[in-house]
Specification:
homotetramer, alpha+beta, Thiol Ester Dehydrase, Chain A, globular
């Protein structure tokens, strides 16, 4: 992740949202805790998916299993400033895709996250529906 | 708390802020968890105090011990809608005061909270400084 | 709560369990956070109820709404020492009861909690079943 | 991680501990939440390091920055059963090392985690002290 300079460039991502920080996101070191940062990436994944649903861009709500999450911690985050979370869709496979996220505060990139989401049908992993694949393809990382 | 109708009236409070909800604030019942609601009240207390400091309304930052917290749960809260948190200052004693808070979502009051904050000096509880007392007196519950 | 000396006496409670503390239970002050302490009381309530079920002492699983939680914070808690949580049943009403809890660490009482749990049927609050009432009556505070 | 069968073998790890699960570790899906699982790995890292200190195996307490965390989610975890967390030291570099962890419940491996910890001196990353390196070398993955 951190080896690709585009990943630290807020403008390279096609989707972003701002999230509030909370006092409880800090740990004894007075910075945003590493696991709290993973929590911000979870919220970002969910808000992105919820946005597709809320805008009626999908005829049915997809369900995912999170198979893999990796975070590079690049800088310290603080409270109470908000954070800007960015989202792009990376490799799209048969029944899973990779989402590429960034976390920015006061102009600097403080963390990057890659997650692999597996599309889940009634009996386990199932191929990504065509309409979902098309929507996901609309959110590549730029550059 | 819940016996006083003013407490459920958003307009009766002199101070409020909006906070985002997070997916992680829900528990297995798909509602905002009771302890997560206590977390929202903590954030509200801290943001109110931080606001006094940020606006340079106090010459020194007060430190508090939370001695008591009571919450009445009045309704179910949901995700992803934001919540409006309200704050008023109740009884002001020699070295402590009571803060009166409410939590509203989509027009309804879902929880009330009373907290007792004890002003803390280097050697334990200490009288509220005069300028702090004056500031606190400016935030009564209306009516 | 804190006015009743029995409440600070570990031996006065008919039921207790030990819980681990976690690094994440601390906040920037390097003590167990107030809301994290409320989390310990939630866990205690749930483990007590789960214990009644697990021992087949009830023919059906009761469902509760938490209507009220009040916590008195009496001392600072630390990590990584475990805590001992105590539980007793206080006043039993028609469709609700009060549970009385304590939190102890290294021999000292660091917090007390009263919660009001409302028995919930399919259509809202419903009378406590007789067998549940009988079980609850078996856990009074001593003295 | 998940490609190496040793990683799913509890017996291949030189160090382990049991941790309690909490009701609050579950999310709306009634399983241990992904971020809660990351929290268990945080606790495991900290308890391992704390153990070295507590046994006086180091003359000074090391400080680390967590630079990278990756988790493979392999199965669903539940509440209230405890989990067994395992720990081994992987590659040891000049100023950082990789820790290899596993999470097991009821005999099955539910998650794996790799973390990169950077040794931190007063002015940023600093070489691992010789005595720390020696201690870390004593915890390889078996096989």
């Amino acid at each position: 992740m951190k080896g690709d300079p585009r990943r630290r460039d807020l403008a390279a991502y096609p989707w972003s949202l701002t999230l509030e920080t909370r006092f409880a996101d800090m740990d004894v070191n007075r910075h945003l805790n590493n696991v709290a940062i993973a929590r911000f990436f979870e919220e970002t994944r969910i808000r992105f998916n919820w946005g597709l649903i809320a805008r009626n861009e999908l005829s049915q709500r997809p369900h995912y299993l999170v198979a893999h999450v990796a975070v590079d911690y690049l800088g310290e985050g603080g409270y109470p400033d908000p954070v800007t979370m960015t989202y792009a869709v990376g490799h799209i496979g048969t029944s899973s895709f990779r989402c590429l996220m960034g976390m920015f505060q006061n102009g600097g990139c403080i963390a990057l996250c890659d997650s692999v989401l597996v599309h889940r049908g009634p009996a386990g992993p199932s191929p990504l529906p065509a309409e979902l694949r098309t929507r996901l393809e609309a959110f590549p990382l730029a550059g």
